[in-house]
Amino acid sequence: MRTVLITGATSGIGEATAQLLARNHFRLILCGRRQDRLHRLQAELKQHTEVITLVFDVRDKKKIDEAITSLPADWKTIDVLINNAGNAHGLAPVQGGDVEDWDAMIDINVKGLLYVSRHIIPGMVERQRGHIINIGSIAGKEVYPNGNIYCASKFAVDALTQGMRLDLNPSGIKVTAIHPGLVETEFSLVRFKGDAERAKSVYRGLEPLHGEDVADLILFALTRPDHVVVADLVVLPRAQASATVVKRQA
Q: How many Å apart are CA 164 and CA 176, to the nearest integer?
């Protein structure tokens, strides 16, 4: 039974992935900032598999160090790392952007991914096997107006994933990137700082992806034969053709 560590497990893609992998008998280390949600999810999923939780913000390197170091001995062998934690903050032209929003996106989407990966990868290298799945975005493939820093952070995720694949190839470690288009999660609510009506408008007039759709692809990548790597995957709802071309019903 493989042990999987998932960041950002308390909602959206992370939560859906935890639920699907639990039903498919992976052992889970669920990570997030919201302890109450982690405990609720642990209680729900323990009927299917073994689950433990770690509470930390991926921006906090010290807390990450403390949390991962605290894992019991029989949980320290992590077979799969799913770097799912990420956020968008604001939607503004670069000349009018909020520097605090910029810092949040770079710290969470880029540095947070690196902090967690730096802890897990050495063990995979030592064992000469493992699988890393980084959740990117269509915004890491195409820039769109007012998306500047968020897009830059997701372009960085794409570049880091490619770099990991090259650096870890001698160790036999699989590296996968999944880049979703429009997914209805808390993403837009966070981006628009709690403005629920504006967040809903992002998905109005179309059927977006759901967390479960991306979770299906994660499970697919994890269950390929040992010699097969799903390296780079872009997934869109049918109504979306690119980062900026979307068909909406009246």
A: 10
150 catalytic, yes or no? Answer: yes
| Distance, CA of 105 to CA of 87 (rounded, Å) | 6
User: pLDDT at position 61, please?
Assistant: 95
142's tokens: 């195409």
- The Cα 226–Cα 79 span in angstroms is 13
Q: Which domains occur in the chain, in start order?
A: 3-235 (3.40.50.720)
pLDDT at 51: 98
Q: Which of 115, 144, 150, 203 is catalytic?
A: 150
* CA pair distance 174, 189, nearest whole angstrom: 33
Structure tokens at 199: 């967040």
Give the span between the Cα atoms of 78 and 124, in whole angstroms. 8
Q: Under 8 Å CB-to-CB from 118, ≥6 apart: which residues?
A: none
**Cβ atoms of 180 and 194 closer than 8 Å:** no
Q: How many residues does the chain have?
A: 250
Q: Give the strands of the sheet with 80-83, arranged side by side.
A: 51-55, 27-32, 3-6, 80-83, 130-135, 173-180, 232-235
Residues of the chain falling short of pLDDT 70: none
pTM higher than the cut 0.85: yes
**CB under 8 Å to 98, separation ≥6 — which residues?**
89, 90, 92
